[in-house]
Amino acid sequence: MISRRDFLKSAAKVVAGASIPLAAIEILAPARVHALKTDSSIRWAFLVDTYKCVGCGFCVKACKNENEIPYDANVTRTWVERYVLTKDGKLYADSPKGARDGFTGTKIDLGMGHYQDIKKEDIKKAFFVPKLCNQCDNPPCVQVCPVGATYQAPDGVVMVDRKWCIGCGYCIMACPYGVRFFHPKYHTAEKCNFCYHRITKGLKTACVQACPFGARQIGNIKDPNDPVAKAITTERVGILKSEYGTKPQVFYIGLDEEVR
Amino acid sequence: MVHGELWTVKELFVTPNEYIYWSVQIVMYPFMTGLVAGAFVLSSLYHVFGIKALKDIARFALVFSFALLFAAPVPIILHLQHPLRGVNVMMTPHFTSAIAAFGIVFSAYGAIVASELWFLYRKHFVDVALPLKEKQDKTPGEWFKFIIFCTLTLGVYDISEESLHRDEKAIKVLAGLGIPVACFLHGYAGFIFGSVKANALWMTPLMPVIFIMSAVVSGIALCMLTYILTMEIRKYLACRKQSPTYSPECREEIKSVEINVIKMTSRYLLFFLTFAISLELLDLIFRGYTAVKSWDVLRSVIYGKDFTDIFILQYGLGNLIPFILFLTPGITIKRAVIGVLLVLFGVFMMRWNVVIGGQAFSLTFAGYMHYHLPIIPHNMETLKEGLFGALGVFIMPFVLFYFMVKIFPVFGLKESH
Amino acid sequence: MKNHIFRPLWVVIGLVVLILIIRPFYVPKDFGIHERGYMYGWYRKSNIEDWKKVSVKYQGKEYCGSCHPDKVESIDRTPHAVIQCENCHGPALEHPSDPPKLAIDRTREQCLRCHAKLVYPSSGRANIRGIDPDKHNPGVECVMCHNPHNPILEGLK
């Protein structure tokens, strides 16, 4: 008899334990979830033309000012990487200060105070690659947030709720692109959000506006008349680290296999 | 300054936002939960499977597991950038995240351990509370004690044979239920790491199993260590001439019991240790054999930059030497102490090599990050996430245990079961 | 006889109920599952509005041109037409009301962002006229000789 009671007790405990999560999330009827998923008419996407990038870093400077990221803090929402491949098959790459001050010399920053000067005769190919949040369709950073402080807005932009973020850093770990960091002032996870306050007002992002060479473009991929959408759908474009299945929405022209 | 910049040194091509964000407290977190789970499993071996040889250590392991339980979330609190918002995990849990389950699994586990303790010590609570209730003009201290123990009885004063028998059954059920929950608690700590697809070193389905095995190893080792310590103190007390309980025979008796328990427990320790090492080596061999894109950088970390940490400190000092110490016949207490200390160190190094090692290379696979543990604290950050923070977390369960023993006496209690 | 076995369970249930009572007071009303479902859309809805409220600092060249049409017109005749005014003059947000707030970047480093010669094939940088910063009048500000609003070499000061 007692063992049955014990069984009931543990069963009740399991039910009670299970009811915490059930009660904690609002259970929605499948029909309602479906209704909520009605497609928004906007899906922001980004196009980077690496041939056009000259590594001036105006985008990084503008981004830091526009989005109030402390200018001298060594973190940034967007950055530019330099790749130099030499004739002996070696890859040299750097992004000092995220290229906030551009690339003004031939020396490659190797970290720990070491620099490598590469003569122009030794260069096989060299180019710049701007990086920013890919606003993935399957953002792993959102998946791993334990409290719902980061999310994907209906128009595809992934954002962080600075009032709800507990600062565990799991999203930073989960991002395969290294776009996330802790904001030096707010101490919450921070990331590029395509200058949400600008794009929702019909403006371009700060980096797109600041780029003198048109290497960066932003558009609505759901609008068939959008030039950026047209370019992405009709030209040959690449994405970064497709192997993670994140479905990035930042597309690149002129990617190289050496781009990380 | 940016969080993480203080202790991170970058080498070669590392992207601007990459730092060692998960530092020593995240090493402590799986280490501490591992100790919790391990200590509980050890106590359950007696309560559920009736392994008599572990009888002496079982009750002790359970109380210690309870003390560890309170210390386990502390590293996380210290690590959080917004510790006060930690409660959000319970309020708006996002269950697609491995961390979200923490609040619930942890509380459920805490409830199980607390209930089991309640059944185990119910008689003791009543024994203490009842005489105090009778007693007239209690001192304030006695009032305090009375209120505490009255609350602890939860209003149940029935200590008849029949009800105690029921307690025993309940303990058995709870201990049985606790094993999977303890494994889950720790297995999912492994899942937190194993499921991060962006991290080439962490992402393996073996991670949760490896974590459980090393958890059991560390839990058993810590219980053995604390058991030896308490027995040594008892021996010391027994041989003090002034002591009223002084008797040389008593001392010899304690010693023989002690060595017996250690012998038995070390067998389980070695069993789980073998299992843990096998899984870790399997993981390593598999990575080398399949050699996917990330292998080049992983190899340079595992066999190069972290060679000392992994092969000398973890496998050599932490695994191989304890094996030799325990397997050589004629084990002594001294040798056992060195053995378990090394095992604990080995498990700690394993956590270290996973957490810090996983951040030792860049997402670019073309750069490295070096971690420099802050030793002298000069601000809140270096205190929390430095040597002193980690030591504080490690000492905490021992302090808690000291106070808990006043409520849950581990030794010298008349066995009711 | 009342069975004492269930006592701990009542305590646990009590705690769970307590959490569930506190929850509605603690969690904002608009927190819930939104468009992208539980996996990607579990958040506080009003945070979207919070982000929209961030102030726009960089106003764009057209905005500058509305007060300084002559400047914009003159630079538009030079290769520097592609550069936003605010890239050198700083974000214009508070400029009309507080003109001294604009911090104009006249440094050599500013020019070197593009004009330090980097011979990088397959990059636009290779096509920009550049100098070797270590050899071309090191330590001297470029604006001593060059006019950024009229950068063609024939127009040297």
The proportion of strand residues of chain A reads 15-25%
CA-CA gap between termini of chain B = 58 Å
**Arrangement of strands in the largest sheet of chain B:** 1-2
Described by strand count, sense and barrel closure, the largest sheet of chain B is: 2 strands, antiparallel
Oligomer class: heterotrimer
Structure summary:
The complex is a heterotrimer of chains A (260), B (417) and C (157). Chain A is α+β, with helices and mostly antiparallel strands and 260 residues long.
In words, what does this structure look like?
The complex is a heterotrimer of chains A (260), B (417) and C (157). Chain A has 260 residues and is an alpha+beta fold. In chain A, 25% of the residues lie in helices and 21% in strands. Chain A has 8 helices and 12 strands. Chain A has a 3-stranded mixed sheet. In chain A, strands 3-2-6 form a 3-stranded antiparallel sheet, with no helix packed on it. In chain A, strand 9 and strand 10 form a beta hairpin. Chain A is globular. Chain A starts with a helix and ends in a 7-residue tail after the last strand. The longest helix of chain B has 43 residues, at 248-290. The model of chain B has no long low-confidence stretch (mean pLDDT 86). Chain C folds into 3 domains: 4-52, no CATH class; 55-105; 106-157, no CATH class. Chain C starts with 6 loop residues before the first helix and ends in a 42-residue tail after the last helix. The mean pLDDT of chain C is 88. The interface between A and C is large, with 76 and 58 residues.
